[in-house]
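User: As part of a screening pipeline, I want to sanity-check one entry by hand. Below is the sequence and the SMILES for zinc ion. Please return the complex as structure tokens so I can compare it with the automated output.
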Amino acid sequence: MRGRGHPAVVAYHRGTDEEEPPVGRMEIRIFGDPVLRQRAHEVTDFDGRLATLAEDMLETMRAADGAGLAANQVGVLKRLFTWEVALEAEDGARSTRGGAVVNPQLLDVSEELQDGDEGCLSFPGLFYPLERPLRVEVAYQDLVGDDHRVELDGYFARIWLHEMDHLNGILFVDHLAAHDRKAALKQMREYRLAAGLDDPEPPRPGGLLLGRHRR
Ligand SMILES: [Zn+2]
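Assistant: Here is the complex for your manual check:
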């Protein structure tokens, strides 16, 4: 996903390491690609290939200046996403928080909501306001299969909800208010035509009614 930033989050760019070759960068699938509508499968093999895939996804996500990337978005139907957020402490110290998340399971969401604009690497250039739960609790595995449980709030919760949606074939436009969704789909139709891609997915019957559902 792409965010417009958050009070606690600084969207600084790591220096471009021109000497470093862009190893492992993958093609990010654009809205209209059917793989974005498919449910990804549970990961059962926690092997070197999984670790390499996660590394390549992190690299791809950073190169695209994204905060999150689901495996579907690079054409791989595994329940895996990567995420990373740059932080700046009050004393100016910079750090990042993120990594790879495997087989995430949403345990709880808060009733309290947050406002914010949201974008997606599969929808280049688009940002729309989208209400999300303020807090989430998630169980997941890491790249070696160890179990974890985490509570996240604010921007972190938004990223994880966005990426977990991807693994179920759900896209952020599905949650938008009807008029925003319509505008977003129109923009994507124009984007695909300009890029010489096929027509994006046609509006689905009842699709606009998905507007406010939360997951
Ligand atoms: Zn996305």
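Points to compare against the pipeline: The chain has one domain: 2-19+26-198. DSSP finds three helices and ten strands in the chain.
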